[in-house]
Amino acid sequence: MAGHSKWSNIKHKKAKEDKKRAKIFNKHLREITVAARESGGDPEMNPRLDTAISNAKNDNVPKDNIERAIKKGTGELDEGEGRYEDATYEGYGPGGIAYFIEVTTNNYNRTVGEIRHIFSKHGGNLGTDGSVGYLFEQKGMIRIPIDDTDEEEFMLNAIDAGAEDIDVGDDFFAVTTAREAMYDVRDNLEDQEYDIESAELVRIPMTEVKVEEETAISNFKLMSAFDDNDDVSNVFTNMQMDEETLAIGEQVE
User: Fold this and answer.
1) What one-character-per-residue DSSP string does 139-169 give?
2) N or C: which end of the chain has fewer CB atoms below 10 A?
């Protein structure tokens, strides 16, 4: 759990420094569009949309873009891009590392072709549905900046709010929740006036695989290639993220 949270932190820092901000914005806006289409454009009545808007604002997505994405989702605005849908893909990376990929796409044929190409280029292969999904458990993950927050007090408050686990990173607390409890825990922590940096559903590997340095480098490059793809929303693997492996990851471009 801690390893996953720390690799998420590395990715988050890289995203903050990414010069191609449009890619980050685009992923947030697609999530907003899908959330609005599924359950309506009122964030007070749509927890997924409320969370998506909050996450987007924390990455400085302009308000006008957010409002346009909501209107696209509710059907008030048609920009001819087609209907965005969520999808998942499964496969294996170098060393047999399991990959679970979540995407938001308006063209399944394009996306599956790109996913297959990324796997192949980096020494992996696209699998069939269900080939690795059973290796992961879906949970909620809420990130809260540490700043001057008292660690012990926060942990007690987070547990009272419904957290299952709390990992302390360099810059933020990573609060793990049951899948169905994430929105309620997020709201509870907000009510206690904690700043929510992000909240999302993640897939935690139930067992992790330790790899050698060369295999770790190959997998980090594969993860980064998926992260750079506009259609990909999240990338999850069962590679063990211990301190030694994470140090390798921090050096991989």
Assistant:
1) EEEEEEE-TT--HHHHHHHHHHHT-SEEEE-
2) C
